[in-house]
Amino acid sequence: MKKILFVALGSTVLFSSCSKDEELIPLSEVEKNDLIYLREEEKLARDIYTYAYSKYQNEVFNSISQSEQKHFDNVLNLLSTYSITDPASPQIGIFNNIELQTIYNQLKTKVDISAEQSLQVGATIEELDINDIDDFLANTTNPKLVNLYNKLNCGSKNHIRSFTNQLTAIGSSFVPQHITIEEYTTILNTPSGSCN
Q1: What is the pLDDT of residues 14-32, one digit of tens each?
Q2: Cα gap 163→146, rounded to integer Å
Q3: 61 vs 49, 58, 109, 130, 166, CA distance in Å?
Q4: What is this structure's pTM?
Q5: DSSP secondary structure string, 19-82?
Q6: Phi, psi (5° rounding) for residue 54?
Q7: How far is CA 49 from the centre of its chain?
Q8: What whole-number distance in Å separates Cα of residue 174 and Cα of residue 168?
Q9: Which DSSP state fits 192?
Q10: Neighbouring residues of 108: CB distance < 8 A, sequence distance ≥ 6
């Protein structure tokens, strides 16, 4: 099973379209599939955070869902640059990728349990994002993809710090399952910053 997801992330990622004089480096099938998957991962994160905000009115979800929307749009810009069909449904909570649909349904159920569980879900999405994006980075040397992935990875690290801070504030904690404790600790001990 692909290491999922959701890539949640913070900060705006800006792309300028290719000029007519700029030659695009062709993408491999693996690179195309990673972008297609990433587009729906970003949607999943945005949709879950939007749902959690509507349920608990915790501002962290509102803020991060807006960041996810920007990332979602930036992935679409790159898909468009390479004339790749957008896989994302316009409907909230609906996914063409069956694996992502299943994950969305499972996470939404956990969000329904409690406000604390919704923060655990947020941190899980972000650690999965970090893990998944690292895999995508290993599949490419294309500067456009590397630039996107690095910005999204930066955003995910900002977001996992935010969710961890929220959990700490209510006397809870998060134990990562998809990145090492060492990596998680390093992320927490590094100041958040701009990902542009």
Answers
A1: 333 444 446 889 999 999 9
A2: 26
A3: 5, 6, 16, 18, 11
A4: 0.86
A5: PTTSPPPPPPHHHHHHHHHHHHHHHHHHHHHHHHHHHH--HHHHHHHHHHHHHHHHHHHHHHHT
A6: -65, -30
A7: 11
A8: 9
A9: P
A10: 48, 51, 93
Neighbours of 18 (CB within 10 A): 12
Token pair 């695009």: residue: 24
Using CA atoms, how far apart are residues 56 and 117, in angstroms rounded to an integer? 11
Q: How far is CA 137 from CA 28, 81, 129, in A?
A: 13, 19, 12
Q: What is the b/e burial string over 91-102, where b = at least 16 CB atoms within 10 angstroms of the residue's CB? A: eeeebebeebbe
Amino acid at 134: D
How is residue 95 written in tokens? 């996914």
Residue 92 DSSP class: T
Q: What is the token pair recorded at 140?
A: 């490419």
Distance CA 144, CA 148 (A): 6
- How big, in percent rounded to 5, are the helix, strand and coil portions of the chain? 65, 0, 35
Averaged in consecutive runs of 10 residues, what is the pLDDT profile of the chain (196 residues)?
39 40 84 96 96 97 95 95 97 96 97 98 95 95 96 95 97 95 95 82
How far is the C-alpha of 157 from the C-alpha of 161, rounded, in Å? Answer: 6
